[in-house]
Amino acid sequence: MDLEVPVLYPTQPKAVRLMNTVWADRTSVHDSLETLAHLQLWAVRAGIGDGQVDESDLDVARELRDALRRLAADATHDDRRGAVSADIDPQAALAVTNRFLADCTPVLRHEAGQGYSRVWRSGDASSFRQELAVLALEGADLLTGQGLRACGGPGCVLYFARSHSRREWCSAECGNRARVARHYQRKRDGDLQLEKGTP
User: For residue 167, with 0-12 CB atoms within 10 Å meaning exposed, 13-18 middle and 19 or more buried, which class applies?
Assistant: First the structure.
């Protein structure tokens, strides 16, 4: 089976990478977490968990992903068509995210020769579910900061944590498409004004 799970911006935070498992191309919006095999491949590529996932993990990962996307849309005033699932409103998304956050507990660990480190524990959950709880925490941090943005590229449905205050697009390609679209819109507007005889 040929799996389509693109590696989108691997330097982005893992919570953003989870959100961006919904993506678009020129034809339509796609979901990189359609099947258990997709989830497993995405998790391996993102370095999440130990690669052991089951069908219930797929439902849970998609639930968190959709909740984070809904909250990201709300936080960024994103009204892009296809960017957010219509099945979840902001209050339900907040409840889902908070459920994950409630399971995320800090634990101090000591390893001989390596000293102390703080890790996150999620009850008795699987390694993958623990990682999802950490992603919810990372997502919450992004939502409360100023760095999360919805890409302004035409047709794009991705989010990104911007590294520069003036960045508006997830990639240079989306930036180029946005500039070209603005150029053609200005040209069309100018042509319309000439047709109407407006100076």
Answer: middle
Backbone CA torsion sign across 111, 116, 121, 123 = positive
pLDDT of 49-87, one tens digit each? 777 898 999 999 999 999 999 999 999 999 888 888 878
Instruction: Please give the tally of structural domains in the chain.
Output: 1
Is residue 159 a part of any domain in this protein? Answer: yes
Looking at residue 8, its amino acid is: L
**Residues sharing a CB contact under 8 Å with residue 49, sequence separation 6 or more, in sequence order:** 43, 126, 127, 128, 130, 131
Residue 162, pLDDT score? 83
CATH number at residue 169: 1.10.3300.10
Give the model confidence (pLDDT) of 86-98 as tens digits. Answer: 788 999 999 999 9
Q: Residue 142: name the closest of 65, 71, 80 by CA.
A: 71
Which ranges constitute the DSSP H helices of the chain? 14-19, 36-46, 55-76, 90-102, 127-144, 172-196
